[in-house]
Amino acid sequence: MIYLDYQATTPPAPETLAAMRPLLEEGFGNPHSPHRMGRAARAAVEVARDQIAAPFGPGGRLMFTGGATEALNWAIKGMAETSPRRRIVTTAIEHAAVLDTVAWLGGRGHDVTVLPVDAQGIVDLDAARAAIDGDTTLVAAMLVNNEIGTIQPIAELGAIARMAGATMICDAVQGYGRVPLPVEACDLIAISAHKIHGPKGIGALWLRDGVEPASLMHGGGQEGGLRSGTLAPALCAGFGAAARLAFESFGEDAAHVEVLWRRARGLLDGWTLNGPAECRWHGNLNVRRDGLDVSRLMAEVRDVAFSAGSACASGSGRPSHVLEAIGLAAAEARSSIRLGFGRYTTEQEIDTAMALIREAADRQRAYG
Q: pTM, whole model, 2 decimals?
């Protein structure tokens, strides 16, 4: 199987598995216990926390969560609860973890504004300036889009939010370890382990000093009294190892992805690119071909793992809200595929996969 679905999840790094194994076997102590095994597990958690927090620079706190969905729910609901302001501003191409959460708050009396984007998936900053005012409690926007790879101008959005006294929340799940983090522009940043070759089931929320969302989970008061629940040291250690590796190999990974991007685009000549060519993470290639039956294509190309969009919306039958937001008609959105690649993808795999996809698409056109 050739794996080209890196936006959904990434293959675990060998270093991730090596860091986790001792804590799954002999080092299984509860990190909140006072005895020697507990203290050893706690030490492993804190080493991992430092590794993950390193790219954020000095200051701030990194809190472990069960994943980025929890981190974003906590950030949005927790900050909305602490403010008398009622307006929430986000963008039309956010992940469901953001859009569904702000919609839930909208049903409970908050005023939700969803900013439009252009054909490249870039937010309209004039619309943002008009919407973000003294009634705005928070602004939520993603750094790198999970469907079309667009890199959003978070620094500009964060500056607008700060001028209005609003809190800036960034979904950096697809950007952490891949592009520079706009730390100075943000108050809370959500990240996930399994998008950077770490384990599933763990994420984190970075909080700027002085920022404290209301708790969503109550119990033992772990994670600074803000997020209750026993931490999983093995997952933390795996996340830490993956984060350390991501930033050690940052330049090498980016250069490798650039080679794969150019190769894949060249081999899909005649397909239309969805989203920008430049202001984009090049490990994401979202393309379309008129009249393509994507379900049939995926059934025929069984030796390649790729998708028709977000894994979270897979099987819904609805066109991608991201592709619709950048102006594609429903038929165009339904004839689009997303290819994701990265550190462990080889050039030979790109050559083989693109040939299989192209041949299957050509057969569709030939035989109707």
A: 0.96
Confidence of residue 310 (pLDDT cuts 50, 70, 90): low
Tokens of 135: 């009634």
Task: For residue 192, tell me if it sits in a domain.
Answer: yes
Q: Average pLDDT in the 235-250 region?
A: 98
Give the domain extent around 265.
249-367
Q: Is the pLDDT of residue 303 over 60?
A: yes
Same-domain status, 297 and 341: yes
DSSP string, 344-360: T--HHHHHHHHHHHHHH
Q: Find tokens 């462990």 and name the residue.
A: 344
Catalytic entry in 170, 186, 236, 312: 312
Whether 312 is catalytic is yes
Distances (CA, A) of 264 to 104, 151, 179, 303: 40, 20, 21, 17
Cβ–Cβ < 8 Å for 342, 6: yes
How many other CB atoms sit within 10 Å of the CB of residue 48? 31
One domain for residues 233 and 315: no
Question: Residue 292: beta bridge partners?
Answer: none
Q: Which of 182, 174, 192 is nearest to 286 (CA)?
A: 174
Per the structure block, which two tokens stand in for 299? 């059934």
CA 63 to centroid of chain Cα atoms = 17
Shared-domain flag, residues 232 and 293: no
Identify the CATH number of the domain in which residue 273 sits.
Answer: 3.90.1150.10
We report the CATH number of the domain holding residue 114 as 3.40.640.10
Contact 136, 160 (CB under 8 A): no
Cα dist. 294→233, 285, 287 in Å? Answer: 41, 15, 11
What is the b/e burial string over 122-151, where b = at least 16 CB atoms within 10 angstroms of the residue's CB?
A: bbeeebbeebbbeebbbbbbbbbbbbbbbb
